[in-house]
Amino acid sequence: MKLTILGGGGFRVPLVFKALARDVSPQRVTELRLYDTDSLRLGVIETVLSQLAPGLPNAPSVVATTDLPTALAGTDFIFSAIRVAGTRGRALDESMCLARGVIGQETVGAGGISYALRGIPVVLDLVEQITRYAPHAKVINFTNPAGVMTEVMQHRLGDQVVGICDSPVGLARRVLSTLQDAGLAPADLGSLFDADGRVHIGYSGLNHLGWLTSLEVDGTDVLPRLMERPDLIGSFEEGRLFGPDLVQALGAVPNEYLHYYYYSRDDLAVDQDAEAPRGAFLEAQQRRFYTKAQDTDDVAGLWEATRLEREETYMATNREVSGEFERDEADLETGGYDKVALAIMHAIANDVPAELILNVANRGALPDLPDDAVVEIPCRVDGSGIHRLPAPELPDHARGLVVNAKYVEQRTIDAAVNHSRTAALLALSHHPLVDSVYVAEQLLNDFADAFDGLDYLVDDHA
């Protein structure tokens, strides 16, 4: 099979490459195509893969190109992981928002709206190219904000597109491991992705806005066993982030990104005081990596050291708010999205069922949201495609936040598709982390000044 990565010069591409090389199934990816508009970054990542390949017996062949039709023609799967305006754009988004006194994070923060406004036109163009050159390819989206971009692509490509995120399965893995270590869940469990296995994850919400509400093992929900043990809740990453008292009060374990909502004032203060907020840190780190890669023979070693630093500092400001704890070693291995992408491709190509938490069209799964709204829920994947499983009902405390967040996402899509400042203002002013319409208006002008193509965000009276 052939897999095309849009954003093939991206830093995390080697994670996908290594995951593909571990696949020994009959229908596995044998050709990996990397497409990027930045030839320098593309060349660096191609070098990393060439240095990793000798140690990976099933490594696919690699084709790197800056020509999109070449990358798409005849491919079986497309993995979309583009970053419009690069890490510099992320750093700008965050700094502009922090200067206005609001959280700027690239998915749940106001920075996510800026990111989407400039990214949606590019994604729409990619959709047209996919329709022309790869009309039958399955599209796996990881371009952020993942829920928004998946919904945009689904409007044109339908169920040909699915969105992925590593956060839900990472959360479930940490909870299950905690219970296993305490002797409260069986130790001999298989993969969390195995649809015929003994574990079923109860999770629902939106991308970066969901809750683990049950964890069924051998027909029994073991999550209540966690809720009875504050000491266990405080022993894994999300439990430490939110604290046992809040987790027990919710009766569910929140996705890590909900920290920005539950502790918004505290996260904002730490971000504003930080010498280098996450966006600025990653921009500097990526610049160093791609520059140093030109002057070293061990590019793969440099990549691995940079990757480890990236994982160690993930959500560092949030952890500072919650007690400055270090990440567990198991969470430093990989972000996990590469394994989710491989699980989808493996299940479809080999008709080996998998159970995953995916971003798909709602179609009644969550009654509070429109049918075409993209939601993050359990799905079964097999050779016939992706099938929604019964989604857990949203907890009462979650419903209003989810409905509001989806309204913000859909107004953002309206703004970008129809070049509407009004829709953009509705999105920003209703964002739960933006507390002033006046600030929303200022941010729209900031976005327009910073990025080409967003001049429609400035009205005649700005």
UniProtKB/TrEMBL annotation:
Binding site residues for substrate: 90, 144
InterPro entries (UniProt xref): Glyco_hydro_4, Glyco_hydro_4_C, Lactate_DH/Glyco_Ohase_4_C, NAD(P)-bd_dom_sf
Top EC class, one word: hydrolase
Cofactor note: Binds 1 NAD(+) per subunit.
One Pfam family in the UniProt entry: Glyco_hydro_4
EC numbers for this chain: 3.2.1.86
Binding of Mn(2+), residues: 165, 208
Active site (catalytic residues): 166, 257
Ranges that cross the membrane: none
The keyword NADP belongs to this UniProt entry's keyword annotation: no
Gene Ontology terms: biological process: carbohydrate metabolic process
Keywords of the record: Cobalt, Glycosidase, Hydrolase, Iron, Manganese, Metal-binding, NAD, Nickel
Cofactors, names only: NAD(+)
Residues with site note (Increases basicity of active site Tyr): 106
Domain Glycosyl hydrolase family 4 C-terminal span(s) in chain numbering: 203-434
Record carries keyword Cell membrane: no
GO molecular function terms noted in the UniProt entry: 6-phospho-beta-glucosidase activity; metal ion binding; oxidoreductase activity, acting on the CH-OH group of donors, NAD or NADP as acceptor
Recorded superkingdom: Bacteria
Family per similarity comment: Belongs to the glycosyl hydrolase 4 family.
Name this polypeptide is given: 6-phospho-beta-glucosidase
Source species of the chain: Cutibacterium avidum ATCC 25577
Gene, per the UniProt record: bglA
